[in-house]
Every structure is written in C-alpha cells, then in structure tokens.
Amino acid sequence: MAKFNIQHITTYTYDEPVYDSANQIMLYPIKDAYQEVVSHRIAITNDPLIETYTDYYGNQVGTFTNYESHNELNISSSLEVQVKSKLLPDDKLSVEKQWEIIDGLQYDMSYINFLKKEYFDAEDELLAVVLPEERRKSTPYEVAQYFCHYVFENFKYIKGITSVETTVDEIWKLKSGVCQDFAHILLVMLRRVGIPARYVSGYICPNQNGMRGEGATHAWVETFIPDYGWLGLDPTNNCIVQSNHVRLAVGRNFVDVSPVKGTYKGTAHHKLEVKVIISYENDPIPQENESKEALIVNPQFEGNSYQRFKEMQEMQQQ
C-alpha cells in the first residue's frame, strides 16, 4: 500500500474585483477498497459554503458561490490518501464466454454510456488498426493491453501541440499529444470493439524513475474485463494502473470530470496558476512555498464562463 500527500492549488487573479463566482469542483478522491482517503481538506477564498452531491457516475461533486468581491480566487485541496494495488485478471475464462459477456453489456444501463462510439472521420484507418473481428480471437484483457501499447508506441508525448478543442480525428492525424489525448484515443479503440471504457481523472505519483504526467493532474482509462471488473490502463506510460495512480473521478470523457469549472461577474481579464505538489509515505502534506515539485500554468487569458471551462480542460492536459 502506498501513501501520498497531495496539494492541488488553483488560483485565479483578476485585474479588477469580481463577484458572484459560482463554481463546480471535482476534487474529491474516489473511496473504495483500493483507495482510502485518510484526510482531505478544501480551502477556498472567503470560505464559502460547499454543497456536495453524487453524480450519475458515482463521483462526489462540490458546488459553491463566492458572493463577496475579490481580486483572487484560490482553491486549495490538501489530500492524504492510501492506495492499494489490485490483483490482475487471471483471464482463465474462455475467449468465447468473455466476448459473450461483453456483448451482453450493450443492454446494461450501467455500461451503455461507456460503449457509445463517437463520430470519427478516419474510420477506415481506425478499423485497419482495430480489426474488430480479428481481435475477438483474443480475450478482452489481451486486446485492451494491445491497444494501450499501440497508443504508447505510435503517439508522441508532446506538450502544447494540442488544445482542449483538438478533436479525436486531429489527434489521430497528429499522432501526438498529452495524457488527455492518449486516453481519448484508447477510449475510441476499445469502444470500437465493444469493450466498455471510461475516462479517469486523477494524479500519478511515482516515487522514483519519473513517469509522464507527474506533477500535474493526469488522465487514463479504465476498461471492463469479464469476471474481474474495471481495469486501469495508462497509455501515456504503457502500464496497468496500480498503487501510484490516485483516482479523482470517472466519466465518458474529460467533460464529465473537469476538476474546476464555473462563471463569475466582472472583468474578463485574469491570470491562472495551477500547482500540484506531491510528497510520499509519511512526509507531511507539503506547503505551497516549500515544494520544488510544482507545475505552474501562468498565461494571461481573456473570457468568462466558457473560457474558464476551456482553461480547466487545458489544465488537465499538462
């Protein structure tokens, strides 16, 4: 079992005072047999009341409104979490039986949204790689691992080459992107062969031998394996998700799990800064001014509610 202390800090600085800042946050880690939240605290400028609810996919969502005039909005999530590795599938069930189970999921409301295929211009090119009929000679577990490896080997990890408006078709043509793009391509491939797949938002916390996506919010995929359940696959690092991934939320794609989004009244000019700070084992939760492992996104933006949503999508891409 691995223990991590994570501080996720989002700061908006405005040119002039703003007010009525209404926001939604998805910063609450998933709690289950493999992830224990030891402590968690969220602090927000002016200390507004946070109301929470559970969404359709089982994620805890918080909402708040900062009515008071402010020149800065700071959202700080301080988390201590323990993550337990999950046993891998034994994959002993026959290939035919596993695909029979997979096919039956198209009528199950719990999986329909994770099977929905999105429009894809390069359908012929995709099918030439996916080969749905050919893949059914292997188990879903083997197919999922093959697709994960394919994305890792055939797509280059390059920051800044894509944006939140980049479509899956464009990612396919570029053969480049970041963790969000890698995850979206893997989702498309798995769903094309009828395997349920969902997008996961969270953090990656390697203690050594750095991995792509560390020091920021991260994204990967969970795919359904018969006689097992949901298996995490990280195509950015070509690995099966174990105890160094911390899950925040799951959904059909990034839109369902955006860490922060909202709107406000006032100036459209503001600056965004994001930091994700991680320490390990029994280290104390790090403070903002003590860490050397910080990601800072500090551009000048214009726009209001829709623009803020786009900015938070961009944060996920780091």
UniProtKB/TrEMBL annotation:
Task: Give any GO molecular function from the UniProt entry.
Answer: peptidase activity
Name-wise, this protein is Transglutaminase-like enzyme, putative cysteine protease
Alphabetized InterPro entries for the sequence: Bac_transglu_N (IPR013589), Papain-like_cys_pep_sf (IPR038765), Transglutaminase-like (IPR002931)
According to its UniProt entry, the protein's GO biological process terms are: proteolysis
The record lists the organism as Sphingobacterium wenxiniae
SMART domains from the UniProt entry: TGc (SM00460)
Task: Provide the Transglutaminase-like domain boundaries.
Answer: 171-237
Alphabetically sorted, this entry's keywords are: Hydrolase, Protease
> What Pfam families does the database record attribute to this sequence?
Bact_transglu_N, Transglut_core
Ranked from the top, the taxonomy reads:
Bacteria, Pseudomonadati, Bacteroidota, Sphingobacteriia, Sphingobacteriales
